[in-house]
Amino acid sequence: MRLFFIVKEGFQGFRRAPLATSISVIAIAISLFLVGLFSLSVYNLSDIFQRFYQTVHLEVFIDPSLSVEQRTALRSQIQRIPAVERVEYISPDQALQEFEKQFGEELVTVLQQNPLPPSFRVVLKKKFRELATLETIVDQIHSFQEVDEVIFQRELIRFFQKYFKLAFAIALFLGAIILFISVLLVFNTIRLTIHGRRNLIEIMRLVGATNGFVKGPFLVEGMIQGLLGGAIACSLLWLIVDLARSFITESVLLPTNFYFALLGFGGMLGLLGSWLSVNKYLKF
Asked: HSE (CB half, 13 Å, CA atoms) of 63?
């Protein structure tokens, strides 16, 4: 019965102070939207980086005069390297098809022959795709006598690693600032809301209500405000992502757990903000 009363009083707070409550919900929604938008941007940036790394591979050009047996033996040698995930043989004809598909030029027509050599496409395991590790593996493969040359996207990988780390460091710094400002805004807004009802708290204490009984309705109200703010933030995020997919690129990601994270974070902010604010008037 006591729990039912606390929950009921928590909902009644919306009716008693609709303007203050609405301001709190809007403040929470804006804060969570900014945090969610920033987190989503970092998540998608990381996804772009990971998808790029999935395309990283080594092109191992081999001696065209190798027999099938020698080629198979070389492939087995490369496959046995711990960092190697798989090795694909690319014939000159297949290499020509890929070249013409990518560049749209009929190379054979111009040169009257196919100049592309046979090769192996070596895909490395995920944890071995850092530039320093790649250099070591390239040297190892290049040491095989049957290998003519080993190439990979060295400069592009260096560019991605340099600027991704810089972007990630900046993102962490900005994220911390946004999170701090958002939490401060939410707490101050909830505190002002409860400050306007400080007389009610004093009256409840004068009639003998326990601290837990006084805090209960405010905690429920704060959690509901947080959940409502989270729901609004989720709706805004969905709208922004939908517009981005329509006008920019369809590859923008918005995982379902982002919705649950925002709702949970909103509820926690409302609950904690109310708890801290009420404690100020209970003089713990």
From this structure: 13
**What pLDDT, on a 0 to 100 scale, did the predictor assign at position 284?**
44
Cα(181)–Cα(135) distance, integer angstroms: 44
Q: What percent of the chain has pLDDT over 90?
A: 2
Cβ atoms of 64 and 116 closer than 8 Å: no
Q: What is the pLDDT of residues 109-121, one digit of tens each?
A: 555 566 678 888 8
Q: Which of 184, 187, 266, 203 is nearest to 233 (CA)?
A: 266
Decide: 74 and 150 in contact? Cβ < 8 Å: no
What is the model's pLDDT at position 231? 92
Of 283, 279, 284, nearest in space to 187 by CA: 279
Q: Which fold has domain 57-152?
A: Alpha-Beta Plaits (3.30.70)
Q: Where are the domains of the chain?
A: 2-51+160-282, 57-152
